[in-house]
Amino acid sequence: MSETKKLPQISAGLAAAGGAFCVGTALGWSSPASPRLVEEGQYFPITQDQWNWIASIVTVGCAISCIPIGYFMNKIGRKSTMMALVIPFLLGWALIIWAQNFAMMVSGRFFLGLAGGAFCISAPQYSAEIAEKEIRGAIGSFFQLLISLGILFSYVVGAFLSVFWLSVLCGIMPIIFAAILFIMPESPTYLVIKNKNTQAEESLKWLRGENYNPTQEIDELKANLSDEILTKVPFSVAIKERASISALVIGLGLLYFQQMCAINAILFYSTDIFAAANVGMDADISTIIIGIMQFFSSFMASVLVDRLGRRVLLLGSIIVMTITLFAIGTFFYIQSIDPETAETLGWLPLTSLCIYILAYPVGYGGIPWLVVSEVAPKKMKAFTGPIIGFFAWALAFLVTLSFNNITTLIGTGETFWIFAGGSVVGILFTFFVVPETKGKSLAEIEELLNRGGRKEK
């Protein structure tokens, strides 16, 4: 096989991850918008209960869109599907920008979720299909990197502008994304599935270089895309294989513990958390610091994922997050019983959250989605993404909607301790259940799961 170029593949991966940037702006929007809409009354009066729905309804949209997205990717293509997702993005931001009441704003957030959840399935699959094995992990990590950048964008812009202008700028981002993605090629895997071999050759030459001979790779794609892929295999048949069950257990477990690490509660309510902590620093500045840390850590993940492996980063990530969640819970517990002592510990929540934000993207931020795309056997690929995506976002909805109510009921400190306890279980799950997929082909990973786990022969 002739020598290939990596830069075009990286460019295509970044272009697809531009949708993740748009998702990040929607996720990060909640933090600076919360005090301005609830306390300052920008737009119209919004109660705390209404805000809880505005902040969390985006995850409902994400969960719903995970179900049909696989059909659209197979029907019109990966690239075309992502281009079409610009429409709900624009509709969502338009409803928020010109919102006249609660119904318009909550509907806008719902449409943002529809686009966001679909991107969590389509962009990683596109990236996995356009990348060579040697850089698959790095390109797959672009999704979390661009989500972090989008969140940071909302934090910075939201600190200085009104919610209206923050929403306007966020609404422009999907248009820029569509313009960039338009010039990128369609997934060669999809083109081979549709028997568009000439277009598949052109796509591979764009991705690998003009001097690249795509014949061998196309033959390999055809060999791998057996009849069980080209025809619809019922879920009842696909789930019978040991590798299929293992893939679902691994995927559902990783995404469960990703949410039980409290990331969405922290992202949605970071400004409120720092304001309540009374750390002597402007809450907007605190969240901007968090956003910078998260972006830096996401960048490090893209560098390390193909060097250190998935399991090492996952374990290191969740261990550090567990410690910091316990520390945050301890601070808020002390604050509730001894405010004077808590004032002397004002550094603790900022330090702990910064460390947390450094740890999350390195492991449990983007790697679970990467591992899900790697461990899904050929027969299960049509089902794994939608099932796990729906589960993850439905759980995120429950966490974000109930976070304020739970903290009111049992206390902020005790709530973070619950998250920390869940993360302890996540450490055990990661160590004993999750396999290492670094440097393995998808066929080798499937064989590993059929043998019963992460142990080598």
Fold and architecture overview:
Helices cover 81% and strands 0% of the residues. The chain has one domain (7-184, 226-450): MFS general substrate transporter like domains (Growth Hormone, Chain: A), CATH 1.20.1250.20. It contains 24 helices and no strands. It has helices at 7-39, 48-65, 69-76, 78-84, 86-97, 102-130, 136-140, 142-160, 163-182, 188-193, 197-208, 215-224, 227-230, 235-238, 242-260, 263-277, 283-308, 310-337, 339-343, 347-365, 367-375, 381-410, 412-432, 442-450. It has 457 residues and is an all-alpha fold. The model has no long low-confidence stretch (mean pLDDT 83). It is globular, with a radius of gyration of 22 Å.
Helix and strand arrangement:
Layout: H1 7-39, H2 48-65, H3 69-76, H4 78-84, H5 86-97, H6 102-130, H7 136-140, H8 142-160, H9 163-182, H10 188-193, H11 197-208, H12 215-224, H13 227-230, H14 235-238, H15 242-260, H16 263-277, H17 283-308, H18 310-337, H19 339-343, H20 347-365, H21 367-375, H22 381-410, H23 412-432, H24 442-450
Number of domains: 1
CATH architecture: Up-down Bundle
Termini gap: 29 Å
- Looking at this structure, what is the CATH superfamily? MFS general substrate transporter like domains
Mean pLDDT equals: 83
Largest sheet: none
**Overall form:** globular
The number of distinct β-strands equals 0
Q: What are the secondary-structure elements, in order, as H or E?
A: HHHHHHHHHHHHHHHHHHHHHHHH
CATH top level label: Mainly Alpha
Proportion of residues in extended strands: under 5%
Could you name the CATH topology?
Growth Hormone, Chain: A
Radius of gyration: 22 Å
Specify the number of helices. Answer: 24
As a percent range, the share of helical residues equals over 70%
Which secondary-structure class do the elements indicate?
mainly alpha
Low-confidence blocks of residues: none
